[in-house]
């Protein structure tokens, strides 16, 4: 439907292939400031959030693998506690507000730097790595940071690839947090904008019809479908390149003995 020429578009008609191909809906939606801003916002949150997620998750998980770390049991108990109990929407909103993060991209990044499930899985994976490798590196004079960067990280690439996909998809699909923390329409994420296009046809200056390249009117339905395709396409493009590492990384550390 998104590739159908507006001139031949018929509402409620089943389309397997467009009767007449057209990119009018894509040209229109990519020319609007609201969609371009949403793409930039989502790309920033996804890129920065994913990198910080990986850094915090793997560093904290690596620290929790060391039994001689002070307070390790208390920290692990706190991590497991969050698997069962959650503060809820109101306390989280008050926290973000008191931190001065409202209407900021950081409101979508800082509160989600890691999560209990990711920490536990990564910790289990890191514990499956041969301890002899770390011991030999320390005998050669490598510091704790050096062991982590030169030994642990290279051996963890399958897990890093898997969790990169996890975190990136989570940030790319950010909707509810963006809806309650971001009121500035110029900072809306892609998912919030797509929801607005689908549910509220009059938002963001998009009416029931728009002028197409051939001088006709492009129905809103083709624009809605084009926005959905554009929201899904980046993940569909990236996933095949990470699929092999994704499947391998999820299974690593799941079996011991």
Topology:
Elements: H1 24-31, H2 33-64, H3 72-84, H4 89-98, H5 116-127, H6 131-139, H7 144-155, H8 157-172, H9 176-181, H10 190-199, E1 209-211, E2 217-219, H11 220-251
Antiparallel strand pairs: 1-2
Helix pairs in contact: 1-11, 2-5, 2-8, 2-10, 3-5, 6-7, 8-11, 10-11
What can be said about this structure in brief?
With 257 residues, the protein is an all-alpha fold. Helix content is 62%, strand content 2%.
Description of the structure:
It is a single chain. The protein has 257 residues and is mainly α. 62% of the residues lie in helices and 2% in strands. The protein has helices spanning 24-31, 33-64, 72-84, 89-98, 116-127, 131-139, 144-155, 157-172, 176-181, 190-199, 220-251; strands at 209-211, 217-219. Strands 1-2 form a two-stranded antiparallel ribbon. Strand 1 (209-211) and strand 2 form a beta hairpin. Helix 6 runs antiparallel to helix 7 (144-155) and helix 8 runs antiparallel to helix 11 (220-251). The longest helix has 32 residues, at 33-64. The termini are far apart. Mean pLDDT is 82; it is low at 202-218 and 253-257.
């Amino acid at each position: 439907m998104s590739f159908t020429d507006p001139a031949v578009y018929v509402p409620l008609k089943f389309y397997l292939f467009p009767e007449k191909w057209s990119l009018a809906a894509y040209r229109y939606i990519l020319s609007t400031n609201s969609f371009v801003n949403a793409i930039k916002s989502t790309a920033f949150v996804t890129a920065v959030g994913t990198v910080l997620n990986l850094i915090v998750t793997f560093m904290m998980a690596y620290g929790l693998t060391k039994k001689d770390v002070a307070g390790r049991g208390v920290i692990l108990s706190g991590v497991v506690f969050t698997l069962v109990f959650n503060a809820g929407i109101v306390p989280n909103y008050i926290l973000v507000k008191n931190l001065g993060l409202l209407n900021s991209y950081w409101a979508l990044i800082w509160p989600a730097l890691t999560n209990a499930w990711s920490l536990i899985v990564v910790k289990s994976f890191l514990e499956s790595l041969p301890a002899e490798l770390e011991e030999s590196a320390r005998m050669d004079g490598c510091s704790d940071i050096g062991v982590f960067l030169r030994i642990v990280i290279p051996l963890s690439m399958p897990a890093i690839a898997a969790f990169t996909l996890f975190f990136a998809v989570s940030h790319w699909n950010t909707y509810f947090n963006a809806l309650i923390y971001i009121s500035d329409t110029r900072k809306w994420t892609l998912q919030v904008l797509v929801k607005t296009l689908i549910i509220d046809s009059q938002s963001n200056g998009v009416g029931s019809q728009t002028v197409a390249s051939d001088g006709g009117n492009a129905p809103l339905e083709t624009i809605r479908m084009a926005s959905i395709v554009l929201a899904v396409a980046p993940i569909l493009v990236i996933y095949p390149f990470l699929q092999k590492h994704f499947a391998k990384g999820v299974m690593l550390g799941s079996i011991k003995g």
